[in-house]
Amino acid sequence: MKVRIGLGAGLGLAAPLEDTRALVDGCEQRGIDSVWFPDRIASDAVEPLTALAWAAGRTEHLKLGTGVVVLPGRNPAVVAHQLASLAALAPRRILPSFGLQPATPAERTAYPVPGPRAAVFEEALVVVRRLLTEEVVTHHGRFFTLDAATVGPRPAKPMDLWLGGLVPAALRRVGRLADGWLASFVTPAEAAAARTVIAEAADAAGREVEADHYGTNLLVMPPEATEDDIARAFASTAKRRPETDPADLIARDWADARRLVGEFVEGGITKFVVRPAVAPGRWDDFLDAFVGAFGP
């Protein structure tokens, strides 16, 4: 299986717009595989689907992903139309992944749902997939109703829809409904165990998640990070995952990043989105260091 490693836009950037331009242009120039945009409505991060459209028009080869877009609370028909349009304008370069809820509780009121969030998520995902693959869709569900709905132009090749999540219900959902898994804040051992749960759920549902469709985000300290920067990042991670050694979640440097990638690959994880754990001083320097560690 081929290992693919892309870059993710970080949070807490001093100049989000300028840094987004530097990241996208720098990755395209260096032949890096992909760039991924987070969905953080309460920050200065560029809205991910808007970022995909802008970056698609600015580049020719770079793959563009969302990591991850909150689907419950969005109109799934509108999301399907947005993805279909993006896929038509940038064929084989749009990589959507979806999540259940925002990363922070303060953002969750921005995504109201008409029922239990997990149930809304699953039905919305079904609606998105049907609209992207079927010519005409009639859907009378618990939360969404469509009569002879269509979006176009539909992708010539069905789009892979990836999901995030780590709890058992989320992993089983990937196996039942999705094409791939994009994790975050997981250790190599947790990712390997999660891969097994997903594959078993897919098998029970009579379907398959392809062997190379398992991925994770990976935080890396920029080369110019100080010991104080590292201590703060590790402390923040320990607060979020108190039961886990932060060294299994954040790479202190690029050599450590290669070590963690190797451990993930041993567990069957082959797709990676590398993100700076703290804002890099210059994206060009971060990208050069990335290429030095992993190549284009």
Describe the structure.
This protein is of the alpha/beta class and 296 residues long. The protein has one domain (4-120, 154-294): Luciferase-like domain (TIM Barrel, Alpha-Beta Barrel), CATH 3.20.20. It is built from nine helices and 13 strands. The strands form two sheets. Strands 1, 2, 3, 4, 5, 6, 9, 10, 11, 12 and 13 form an eleven-stranded parallel β-sheet that branches. It has a two-stranded antiparallel ribbon with strand order 7-8. Helix 1 (16-30) packs parallel to helix 9, helix 2 (48-58) packs parallel to helix 3 (76-89) and helix 6 (188-204) packs parallel to helix 8 (254-266). The radius of gyration is 19 Å and the shape is globular. The two termini are 17 Å apart. The mean pLDDT is 94.
CATH superfamily: Luciferase-like domain
The chain-level structural class is alpha/beta
CATH architecture: Alpha-Beta Barrel
Compressed to H and E, one letter per element, the order equals: EHEHEEHEEHEEEHEHEHEHEH
Give the C-alpha Rg: 19 Å
